[in-house]
């Protein structure tokens, strides 16, 4: 991060490499033209030449303005929780996600093709829950590395016959770092050697003390395979969501995060996005990362075409000029020309970043604070 060679820096600040090397020597750093120098040294050298290298981020100003738009508390409405499932390999994440999806399709939907779009919604007692279908670890590591926060609640799956394993601990750390509440799903309760108390004991060492033991972590024993305990899990998710008072303004400027994206032979770039604020509509002009375009069509997780998608709704969008990356933010624009110009500026910035000069404040950093 922030690594730039002497030669690159020279080019960037329009000086001779020899001048840079001299300055570095002055700072006690022996360097050759192809040597990488760290951010601090870059800043010192640049400021010696009267150049501000720490970019104050002129690039995304317009987008920032929009993201910082004051939320109007009067317009905030409850939104569905966005849930990520994490846990050690083979503890039953995929089985659980499939079981929840399949046992919660309404009769009307059952005829339709449930297509995989990286996220899906279920309805429980009249309330919706959005599950991210992407591997939880990926959702956390890739997307959070990009500054996107797309999880409200983590379901930590721990196999009752296996207990806490390395990826269990990793998942706990991710969730804690992101300040996301954890619900423990003690899976594989159908197995003869299931030992839920051992799971409780082991997890207590990581600060997850079950309610039965006087703590405040919810543990739900279940069997994803036999599909028992799923209703309790869903109810607990709704309970935790209620306590978190998750809200969004459906009338705000639509924005959210790209969950996954690919180039489809017939349909062109297809991106699954999670709307996090506002309501996205067909015809909207969006910028997603370094891509942009007018939304030509939207498809929901049931494979149905939809005209709009509100907060916490996952949809596939068609119409982008290129394939964005998972974790990219998207924002809806009023003006196609501005959208194009922002996307182009971002491409330029991206190139610059690849050169190694990283600006201190990125759009993502600011987004995190909202
Ligand atoms: P993942 O790696 O966490 O996604 O785990 P999978 O969902 O692929 O499950 C790993 C294995 O555990 C598979 O063979 C599943 O059939 C099995 N499995 C998952 N849930 C249960 C359960 O509740 N009971 C039993 N007995 N096996 C399960
Ligand atoms: Mg799996």
From TrEMBL:
One of the essential components for the initiation of protein synthesis. Protects formylmethionyl-tRNA from spontaneous hydrolysis and promotes its binding to the 30S ribosomal subunits. Also involved in the hydrolysis of GTP during the formation of the 70S ribosomal complex. Residues 81-229 are annotated as: G-domain. This is Translation initiation factor IF-2. It comes from Effusibacillus dendaii. It comes from the Bacteria. GTP binds at residues 87-94, 133-137, 187-190. Belongs to the TRAFAC class translation factor GTPase superfamily. Classic translation factor GTPase family. IF-2 subfamily. It is found in: Cytoplasm. Signal peptide: none annotated. The chain holds residues 224 to 593 of 799 of the full protein. Residues 78-247 form the Tr-type G domain.
């Amino acid at each position: 991060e922030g690594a730039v060679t002497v030669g690159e820096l020279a080019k960037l600040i329009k000086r001779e490499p020899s001048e840079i090397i001299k300055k570095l020597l002055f700072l006690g750093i022996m360097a050759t033209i192809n040597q990488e120098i760290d951010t601090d040294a870059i800043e010192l050298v640049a400021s010696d030449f009267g150049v501000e290298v720490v970019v104050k981020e002129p690039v995304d100003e317009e987008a920032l303005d929009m993201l910082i738009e004051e939320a109007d508390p009067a317009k905030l409405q409850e939104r569905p929780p966005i849930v990520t499932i994490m846990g050690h390999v083979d503890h039953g994440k995929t089985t659980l996600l499939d079981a929840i999806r399949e046992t919660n399709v309404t009769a009307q939907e059952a005829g339709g093709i449930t297509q995989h779009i990286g996220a899906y919604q279920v309805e429980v007692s009249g309330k919706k829950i959005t599950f991210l279908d992407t591997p939880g670890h990926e959702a956390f590591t890739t997307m959070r590395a990009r500054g996107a926060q797309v999880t409200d609640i983590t379901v930590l799956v721990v196999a009752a016959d296996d207990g806490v394993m390395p990826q269990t601990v990793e998942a706990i750390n991710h969730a804690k770092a992101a300040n996301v509440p954890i619900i423990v799903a003690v899976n594989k309760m159908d197995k003869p050697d299931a030992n839920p108390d051992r799971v409780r004991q082991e997890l207590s060492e990581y600060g997850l003390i079950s309610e039965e033991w006087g703590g405040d972590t919810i543990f739900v024993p279940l069997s994803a395979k036999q599909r028992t305990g799923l209703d309790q899990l869903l109810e607990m998710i709704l309970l935790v969501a209620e306590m978190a008072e998750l809200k969004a303004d459906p009338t705000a400027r639509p924005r959210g995060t790209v969950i996954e994206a690919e180039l489809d032979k017939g349909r062109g770039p297809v991106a699954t996005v999670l709307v996090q604020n506002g309501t996205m509509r067909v015809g909207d002009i969006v910028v997603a990362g370094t891509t942009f375009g007018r939304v030509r069509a939207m498809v929901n997780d049931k494979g149905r075409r939809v005209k709009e998608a509100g907060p916490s709704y996952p949809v596939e969008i068609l119409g982008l000029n290129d394939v964005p990356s998972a974790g990219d933010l998207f924002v809806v624009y009023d003006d196609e020309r501005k959208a194009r110009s922002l996307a182009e500026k971002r491409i330029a910035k991206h190139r610059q970043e690849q050169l190694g000069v990283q600006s201190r404040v990125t759009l993502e950093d600011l987004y995190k604070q909202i």
